[in-house]
Structure formats: structure tokens, C-alpha cells
Amino acid sequence: MSKIKERFQALDLMERAKKCPFKPFFKAPLLQFSGVLIHQLRLRKVESLDDMRKIHFDISGKRIRFGLCEFALITGLNFGKYPDEAKLKTMSGIRRLVKKYMNDSNIVRSGELVAAFLNCGDTEDA
């Protein structure tokens, strides 16, 4: 997030970014990733067959759910109603940025995405 903030500041886009739906990410303090916590949760993951948008964990004998609603509460993002399959296909069908910056690749690694973002000079694309 710090690299994104730095890049947006360099392109003078911070005010615009704070007006977008992702503004909680720009206002949030620096978060520390805990690999140990994630590992412990993964060890307690329970198979969930009813809804693929939720993850269930068994913690102290109780089944705990983490889904889109919880993610929205934590991040402060407004998710509204989850889009249906047809809407998702039309949304994901736009590949202009992938064609322009990633050579229309079907697989984009995080390092390639970071490099493309940091080297992007077009403020609209950033």
C-alpha cells in the first residue's frame, strides 16, 4: 500500500484516490502481516460446500465464518449486493490494461504488476 500511495502522490492522484470506493485503504494505518496467524487459521480451515465466497474455520470447537460481509466490515468498502455470474463475466471481460501493460498474458505475477504500476506514466491507467 505504501508503494501505491507514493506512486499516487507522485502523479498527484491522492485526492482523487480518496474519493474512490477504496478510500479506507488510503486512510488506514500501516498494517502488519502475520504469517503465523494466517498459518494457524489455515490449519483450522473446514471444508465449506454451501458457498464458495465464505471460508469456515473450526476455532475452539466453534465454526467461524469469514466471508464477503466480514471483509467489507473490516475494510470499510461498500460491497452492496454480490454481482451475478453474467455481470462478473462482463466486468472481467475488459482486458485493456492487461493487453497494454502485461502483453495480454493470462497469468500476471505480483512482481510484474508492481513493475507495471510503478513504471506507468499515464495517470488514468494508474
Automatic annotation (TrEMBL):
Using the record's annotation, list all stretches that form the DUF1985 domain: 50-117
Top-level taxonomic group: Eukaryota
Pfam families tied to this protein:
DUF1985 (PF09331)
User: What protein does this entry describe?
Assistant: DUF1985 domain-containing protein
The organism is Trema orientale
